[in-house]
UniProtKB/TrEMBL annotation:
Gene Ontology terms, MF aspect: nucleic acid binding; RNA-DNA hybrid ribonuclease activity
RNase H type-1 domain segment(s): 423-558
InterPro entries according to UniProt: DNA/RNA_pol_sf, Rev_trsase/Diguanyl_cyclase, RNaseH-like_sf, RNaseH_domain, RNaseH_sf, RT_dom, RT_RNaseH_2
Official protein name in the record: RNase H type-1 domain-containing protein
Amino acid sequence: MPGINADVACHRLNLDPQTRPIRHKMRTIATKLEEPTREEVKKLLEAGFISEIQYLGWISNMDCYPLPRIDALVDSTVGFSIMSFLDAFSGYHQIRMHPPDVNDVSFITREGCFSYKMMPFGLKNAAATYQRMMDRVFHGQRGRNLEVYVDDLMIKSKGVDSHLCDLKETFATMRKFKMRLNPLKCVFGASRGKFLGHLLTPAGVEPNPDKVKTILELESPRNAKEVQRLTGKLAGLSRFLSRSGEKCSSFFKVLRGNQKFEWTAECEEAFRMLKRQLSQALLLQSPKEGEDLALYLGVGTEAVSSVLVREEGMKQLSIYYVSRILKKAELRYPILEKLAYALIISARKLRPYFQAHSIRVVTDHPLRKIFEGVEHSGRLAKWSIELSEFDISFVPRLSIKAQVVADFLADYIVEVGAEEPRPQGAWKMMVDGASGKHSLGGVVLISPQGVTIEQAVALHFPVTNNQAEYEAVIAGLRLAKELGTQDVEAFTDSLVVASQIRGEFEAREPTPVKYLSKIRVIIRGFRTFSIQHVPREESVVADRLAKFGPRGGGGEEP
């Protein structure tokens, strides 16, 4: 495509030459979106709209070529009954060094100085170079009947006959490019096998038994270095461990600051608990295309966690466990915000699953109202925007269908979906209304835990100040009702409205009478309700919403 003459139109990036650009990580996408993405990139390349780059000058010699997501490769095996696992023979050494760079990869021994003519292990960009080469060699097979991660290959098929054809196709490609395999490390025609730290079986995905055995045979750490090695080993198995952040939090406490190392009783108990969990069968499932998935959230004293599950009849089968230790500021979040944080952490970690499936968040807490249809600000607004791209719904938990979910929810300070009483204490509701060319109402609800929810109400009909105040009261009561609130303490800066609702002043005009009738019907649905008159300066946020916040829903003319 010739393109428009640069003299007519040419887009410039107005960058400060003194500012260093930011290198973004590769965006993770669902497996089913990889082929459309590949086709779109191919189309843009052929049209000349984009070009491939390898080395960016502003990040020295770093090659940004992305490695595949291991969990995505593992999940891609669902539905395949027979597999072969191939390992390249000294894979890196099969790639030649660029001639001008040969002398730059030299080493010295007592026998003399030497330089590599073939790519050695340990170079900064070696993995990226190898992955790029493998992606190009097997570009026609990746995702269809073969998966590759650097020098590890897996051929997958749905039957013996097709597997023989897939092996033949793979070997023909290898001969074409003169690639060699290590026969001692290859496994052919297996129904189960080790791949990228996982054990793939017909029943699901298990952790590599060698990695599990290593941890089970460990003794209690005696210094900080051994604790770091332990946490590193556990990180590789975190997908299989329920509430791993909560269980490992004591390990990180002994690593903080320059304090003297002390392996506490709490650390020892957590270590034994993790060993007990690892000694049990740890089996995860991979989701099937198009099925809905359920997400359970949990909040502990020092961490938030979640488990993603799929349903098969009356069974619930776990797919992925996520856990995150809370930082100092996050520890002070109200309970509902911690639950919201658990959801946003899960969405980030499990982005490919959230992209490819509808997610049902199973909870008895009013998370839906925090994210949907409520005017809010700060981090809740950012999280709501971030989650808006996914198909997420919120449903109440009626029963625990599987022991895996029961184990996940057990021993939590706050259990999402647990059949427990609502938090004690009344919700505070501050309201304000303003009449004018654009009549508005403002509502601020504050939960007993301190979660603040704001809503602005646009009134599309002429009202007086008191009528706008009534509209704000009705909107606030309806919102409180939707949130499942039982006790409400309302505050308004209108003495007339507060007194009429309490029955101290008589309403004689038809419009206030209609408002009062509607309010009393709604109030009957609460356990307790009170309303007080307060000075305007004590209801600043509601007053601001009533003046400047026309983004909420409209009121109803009585």
